[in-house]
Design goal:
Family: Belongs to the 3-oxoacid CoA-transferase subunit A family.
Organism: Proteobacteria bacterium 228
Strand order of the largest sheet: 4-3-2-1-8-11-13
CATH architecture: 3-Layer(aba) Sandwich
Number of helices: 6
Keywords: Transferase
Number of strands: 13
CATH class: Alpha Beta
InterPro entries: 3-oxoacid_CoA-transf_A, CoA_trans_fam_I, CoA_transf_BS, NagB/RpiA_transferase-like
Largest sheet: 7 strands, parallel
Strand content: 25-35%
Protein name: Succinyl-CoA--3-ketoacid-CoA transferase
Length: 233
């Protein structure tokens, strides 16, 4: 990388510095818009003891689910278990620590982390196990719990297009958690389908400004469908 040019040529370079025990925020929702090649590189590196923050943990054999196979994840912060049988097994056996978080709260924890806000109050979860042990305050006659924001050592993100300066555009529903994750990493790595030259992206179409991005890499993607539903003939 030189100057404003954020492009790297290998996945080894993209995730250089990732170590055991770090916190990784991963974009994606189900299997939509997941940084699948960056996840595969994490598996290849063999780093362990990771805390992974993501809406879910992929599926068996794909996405973040592959990191469960070699027990690389110590803790998951997510909204649901989804279609991942290994995630469910490790959760129920107690070998994987899981912090289940309401989806909107999780999104705001990441957004707040990226905005430099250390904590916020939300009514979601008050009076349930989600709120146990958390500070409670009353505003206008309603109870709220305090939630701390999240900042990752790394954020791994899937975009559609990026320029060499790290400005990123997402495509349709693949946007999901990705723009939030991109702001909340000490080191943010984005893999995209296409890299263009600065000035080729319409400024009004950019979702993530390059100031948040440290590294960009062009990848090829399987784009697996989690559940295919077709109309009966």
């Amino acid at each position: 990388m030189a100057g404003f040019d954020k492009v790297v040529s290998s996945y080894e370079e993209a995730l250089a510095g990732l170590q055991d025990g770090m916190t990784v925020i991963a974009g994606g929702f189900g299997l939509c818009g997941i940084p699948e090649n960056l996840i595969a590189q994490i598996k290849k590196m063999g780093v362990k003891g990771l805390t992974v923050v993501s809406n879910n943990c992929g599926v068996d054999g794909f996405g973040l689910g592959i990191l469960l196979e070699d027990r690389q994840i110590k803790k998951m912060v997510s909204s649901y278990v989804g279609e991942n049988a290994l995630f469910e097994k490790q959760l129920l056996s107690g070998e994987l620590e899981v912090e289940l978080t309401p989806q909107g709260t999780l999104a705001e924890k990441i957004r707040a982390g990226g905005a430099g806000i250390p904590a916020f109050y939300t009514a979601t979860g008050y009076g349930t196990p989600v709120g146990e042990g958390k500070e409670v305050r009353e505003f206008n006659g309603r109870h709220y719990i305090m939630e701390e924001s999240i900042v990752g050592d790394f954020a791994i993100v899937k975009g559609w297009k990026a320029d060499r300066y790290g400005n990123v555009v997402y495509r349709h529903t693949a946007q999901n958690f990705n723009p939030l994750a991109a702001t909340a990493g000490k080191i943010t790595v984005v893999e995209v389908e296409e890299i263009v030259e600065p000035g080729e992206l319409d400024p009004t179409h950019i979702h993530t400004p390059g100031i948040y991005v440290n590294r960009v890499i062009k990848g090829s993607f399987e784009k697996r469908i989690e559940q295919r539903t077709v109309r009966k003939g």
